[in-house]
Amino acid sequence: MSGTELVQKYIGEGARLVRDVFDIAREKAPSIVFIDEIDAVGSRRTYDGTSGSSEVNRTMVQLLAELDGFDKRGDVKIVAATNRIDLLDPALLRPGRFDRIIEIPLPDAEGRREILKIHTRNMKLDNVDFEGLLKMTDGLSGADLKAIVTEAGMFVIRRKGKAVTLQDFNDAYNKMIIKETKEEVAGMFV
């Protein structure tokens, strides 16, 4: 499940969803509960006076209650992922809750090469220099690479081409960078 699914509009609904997920996991044990984007519900607790922040806090408290104690959880393992570990509430990282932090770094050049090969394997490429792509994509995630490959394919379709060229990848990269920059700027004024 995604952490954003646990952030609900109505009072008590997020906490109920957390309880329900853990009840089902215990019924189906052995099981694994995977919470993607846990920072959506597990960020440092604050109170800004809104019902939204109160609901997120209630959901977080319920999640902490479910995480406490191995006996209560039985054979249910909990795994979570975040891109923003710096935002997590320290209470989540206490022993007995999420004991281990495993960092999965951004792919190096060889990793990016393999990711690009996977996502371009069904594409017809026209003289594409992977070395140039590797330099251009330094610091990007696997999801970013997939988005660039997909967008490069869209450029071919739009121009009614037969194969993906290095220019298509360059255009896709530039489009992605411009989009991210616009989103960052827009986020400054929210």
Describe it.
The chain folds into 2 domains: 3-93, 3-Layer(aba) Sandwich (Rossmann fold); 109-188, Helicase, Ruva Protein, domain 3, CATH 1.10.8. Helices cover 54% and strands 8% of the residues. The chain has helices spanning 3-6, 13-27, 39-42, 51-67, 70-73, 109-120, 130-136, 142-158, 166-188; strands at 31-36, 76-81, 125-126, 164-165. The chain has a two-stranded parallel sheet with strand order 1-2. A two-stranded parallel sheet has the order 3-4. The model has no long low-confidence stretch (mean pLDDT 82).
Arrangement of strands in the largest sheet: 1-2
SSE ordering? HHEHHHEHEHHEH
The count of helical stretches stands at 9
- Mind describing the biggest β-sheet? 2 strands, parallel
Indicate the CATH topology of the largest domain. Answer: Rossmann fold
Number of strands: 4
Distance between the termini: 27 Å
| Beta-strand share of residues | 5-15%
* CATH homologous superfamily identity of the largest domain: P-loop containing nucleotide triphosphate hydrolases
Mean of residue pLDDT? Answer: 82
* Helix share bin: 40-55%
Low-confidence stretches: none
Structural class: mainly alpha
| Overall number of structural domains | 2
CATH class of the largest domain: Alpha Beta
Report the principal-axis shape: elongated
